[in-house]
Amino acid sequence: MNKNNLILGLDVSTNTIGIVLFEDLGDRGALKLLTHVTPNVKPKPKSNIQLLFEKAKIFDNEFLHKYSDVGITKVIIEEPLLRSNNVNTVATLLRFNGMIARSVYDTLNIVPEFISSYDARKYGFPELMDFRTHNKKGERYPQKKLDKDILEDKKVLFGAYPWDVDKKLIVWEKVADLEPQITWLYTRNMTLKKLNFDMTDAYLCVIAAMKKDNIWK
After folding, report:
1. Over the range 158-194, which residues count as b (16 or more CB within 10 Å of their CB) and which as e?
2. What's the rounded Cα separation, in Å, for the pair 149 and 28?
3. Does the structure show a pLDDT above 80 at 87?
4. Fold adopted by 6-126+161-212
5. I need a surface site. Which of 39, 72, 119, 197 has the fewest CB within 10 A?
6. Considering the entire predicted model, what is its pTM?
């Protein structure tokens, strides 16, 4: 890979880390790499904290050290989604996200920036913002409410889609349309592997952060 002004995007989960590299062309980005690291620790340590440290080490060895001299100048990490009712799950996500951020700083000497999944979708694909016209039962809202929402510009993410839409699949479809050259990963049953969504989330966090700052169009 040629040394360029590259932006690294990461979507961090404890199973798979989605990775993207964009070349910054000023008013837009050119995709250079879309991949992932799935840390598999063997033998599995008894301590969950040690397991996270080992996974972070694998990410460091399999990606960061290999790409430490390609010209990465900016790193954007998607913040973990903290909607789980399981306090332990939330704590684990926060710890691992912090470990990966520290690895980035130690290896690349770059302080990562962060973007929420909401802002990633809002700014990355602004067309996803729309008015919601029906409730979860499929019943249309009263016209008075619809008029008020329009007046107050109360657009919401995926407002034009059914309530139970697969949001990650919608994002994947949009990325796939933008990058038709990508070969995606499928199961034996020809269904998309979940790690594709980690990669598209990484892709989205970069283009969204750059659009949010009015750098890319």
Report:
1. beeeeeeeeebebbbebbeeeeeeeeeeeeeeeebee
2. 33
3. no
4. Nucleotidyltransferase; domain 5 (3.30.420)
5. 119
6. 0.94
